[in-house]
Write a structure and sequence with these properties.
Oligomer: heterodimer
Largest sheet of chain B: 8 strands, parallel, barrel
CATH architecture of chain B: Alpha-Beta Barrel
Helix content of chain B: 40-55%
CATH class of chain A: Alpha Beta
Largest sheet of chain A: 8 strands, mixed
Order of helices and strands of chain A: EEEHEHEHEHHHEHEHH
Number of domains of chain A: 1
Radius of gyration of chain A: 17 Å
CATH architecture of chain A: 3-Layer(aba) Sandwich
Number of helices of chain B: 14
Number of strands of chain B: 11
Strand content of chain B: 5-15%
Structural class of chain B: alpha/beta
Radius of gyration of chain B: 20 Å
Helix content of chain A: 25-40%
Strand content of chain A: 15-25%
Number of strands of chain A: 8
CATH class of chain B: Alpha Beta
Shape of chain B: globular
Distance between the termini of chain A: 30 Å
Order of helices and strands of chain B: EHEHEHEHHEEEHEHEHHHHHEHEH
CATH superfamily of chain A: Alpha/Beta hydrolase fold, catalytic domain
Distance between the termini of chain B: 28 Å
Strand order of the largest sheet of chain A: 1-2-4-3-5-6-7-8
Strand order of the largest sheet of chain B: 1-2-3-4-7-8-9-11
Largest interface: A-B, 16 and 20 residues
CATH topology of chain B: TIM Barrel
Shape of chain A: globular
Chain lengths: 261, 395
Amino acid sequence: MVDHTRETIHVNGCAIEVLRGGTGPGLLFLHGAGGASDWAPYMDRLAERFEIAVPSHPGFGRSDTPGWLDSMSDLAYFYLDAFEAMGLDDVHVVGNSLGGWLACEIAVRSTERMRSLTLVGAAGIPVDGVPMGDIFLWNPEDRVRNVYHDRTVAEARLARNPSEEEADIALKNYFTTSRLAWSPRFCNPDLAKWLHRIRIPTMILWGAEDKVFPPAYGEAYAASIPGSRLRIVPECGHLPHQEKTDAFLDAVTAIAEEAAP
Amino acid sequence: MKFFFFHLMPYAHLDLDYDKTYPGAYLTLPNSYYDPKKGAPLYHRYLDELELADRLGFDGVCVNEHHQTAYGMMPAPNLLAGALTRSVKNATICVLGRALPITDNPIAIAEEFAMLDNLAEGRFIAGFVRGLGTEYHASMANPSFSHERFHEAHNLIVRAWTETGPFAFDGKHYRYQYVNLWPRPYQTPHPPIWIPSQGSRETYEWAAHPDRKYTYLITFNPAEAVKRNLDAYARQCETYGYECGPGQLGWALPIYVAETDEVANREAANHIEVFFNKFINSPAEYKLPPGYSSMASYKYVMETKFKVREQFLTHETLTGNGMFVCGGPETVTEILARRFDEMGYGNLVCMLQFGTLPRDLTEKSMTLFANEVMPKLRHLGERSPAPLAAAPAGG
């Protein structure tokens, strides 16, 4: 396991936890609905090539749940401030699911501190006629089974007995996700109007078997972000960074190299 | 003691084998299970039963709101309450209640309730609820803002009923340039407000407040839980420095009366089991979307109440824990009188039709209840008069 740290930073009175590790160009990983409160194998792999920062968003993990947090817009503006507080400049941004939506909400406001963007199974835009999965109606087992394509990965995950703290964090993440994404469901109907403002190198990475946001969502992103590249990962569900870490790392590295100064 | 006849209007023709294919009677049960040729007469039968309750001397007749479910066919209870204003001659018409947070325009509820109050010339009680968890799936209203929206919508409605318009309303979720209600309510300052509840602390602290003194109605719970919640409400009133009379406390439950205990148990057992196991039943995720309750109560309910509901609830279990009262007139009278001594409720909201209970048995049970049970319980709680007086304007 790569050496890493866990630190708490304060942004306008809101304390958030940030995992950091690795060396290389700066990379910010924005987690999805499931959170990223503990160091994970995909972070190890990223940290071999990048100096990574993985914050827990306000309302997630061990970060504060501030009273002002009502929407993804609130979270996007928070991160514009947090970039500064985390000392991130000229950074590669990677966002999965809810974190991909967040990355886009930040980027349409400003890409000033971003060098590249990688969206991984990103929420955020509606695709008419292509239903998304309903994580709020799935039971806890289905919430795991439906995000992985490989059943053995899902079953291994389900076989783990979470600690009480882990269970509490999972519930907190689920509640905050509901607050931010219940309605309109996992999207901002206005977002697609402004995606043309993202003019940094952008990679769109999607699991071919994503049951939460089927690949049509990735295609819609690719059509909306000028010059973006779409990669579909075969035999992969909603979490390519976990399920197909090599393909994930290749994609992030490729777009980072394209964006190199 | 006041007696209210409550109807859920279940789709009684539901194919009860639906649960071999679908997890519950809500939300995702395809509406192909509903046959309008059977549903239409059912609406009229149920309205007949509500009208019969009026003729039998019940103090009130009650309807309520549920969406996208076979459990209750009343997504728009005010329509049926409106129909009843023409035929119900003595009873108070009660909508228990409308789910405030799931609407984007609470003024519509203020208007419709004011219309009903006028049509019924003041024989009207307004119920406000947050709605079941499933209603948030059905409406897409964000459960995380359920409490905020409930309080804001309530404040807006009460102000609309009591203040001379037009005025502006500035809320977080609801903002209006012009609030100017036509018609105004018939009752002054406004119709009595009832709060049906499953018993959360936040609700009774709010409902018991001296500015409100809303009638607190505990629904579909074991008797022990009903008592605990009504006691908590009464203690809250004491904390606020006043004594709450029985008129401020209500208990809603299914009841069945027949000639004898033996006949009652035989006739009701299957129908009450169908009600609790086929109509109410749905997966936890349907009932409790994230944000609808606090995280602490989410964990508590998931580990306690919903574990119980996963088991098949038998007639014996339901009568044993007091969720259902069933028997001959003497037994039913004795149980309800004993519960009065324990709980001090002054409003009994009787669900005398439930699940698949057919018309003839429903009417027999209603008639026996009205003729042989009600008269013996009437005097209970009379020491505290005027339970239905309108609450002072507030909120």
